[in-house]
Fold this sequence. Notes:
Layout (H helix, E strand, L loop, with lengths): L8 H14 L11 H27 L1 H5 L3 E6 L2 E7 H4 L9 H15 L6 E7 L13 H19 L7 E5 L12 H7 L1 E7 L1 H8 L3 H8 L2
Parallel strand pairs: 3-4
Antiparallel strand pairs: 1-2, 2-5, 3-5
Amino acid sequence: MDSRGRLFPGAIFLVCFLVFGLTGCTIIFQKGRRTDVEKISKLKSELSELERAKAELEDRLKKEIGDKQVKVQMEDRGLVITFVAEVLFDSGKDKLRTDALEKLNKISEVLNTTVKDLSMGIEGHTDNVPIKYSGWKSNWELSTARAVSVLHCLVDKQGLAPQRLSATGYGEYRPVASNDTSEGRQENRRVEIVILPKTTKAKAASPSSSEENRENLK
């Protein structure tokens, strides 16, 4: 404070610091980043692609959806096409049924055009009934083999770029319904094709949030 009773700038800063500190408020000075705006814009574009793909797939698979053989749903992880396993495979088998090729062909054009730049994960799932007679060691092997069969069909017969695809078998461990009823077990026996936004992969490869915060404060 000077002779006239005025506070020096440094004293003013100290008072503000104490006031905000005691009231529990925090002030963070952060540089705005153009990349954040670009990421948001890109995400909106990719979500728009997925919405268009969803509408096209629902139109192509109208009969199968009506017969409850296929579902097409938007989820947090992306656009998910779910096939009841019996639509694609005979019981205990990993070889695609002949009529399954027609159903996969219905979706391949959409995968090769509307979402041609997006990656996909193919997931195999089973119910919890132990395997006894089919020769598989467990439901894990069966679910994985089925996912790989669908992958090969999309690559070898439908012309999808192999670098876009991956295959995973989850066995009985990600059920969507109760295994206590035959209807629930049928729902759990499924193959899912998950179309992933690019931002999903980018987020997984990005630095941790704490590292980002440190960068922003520089």
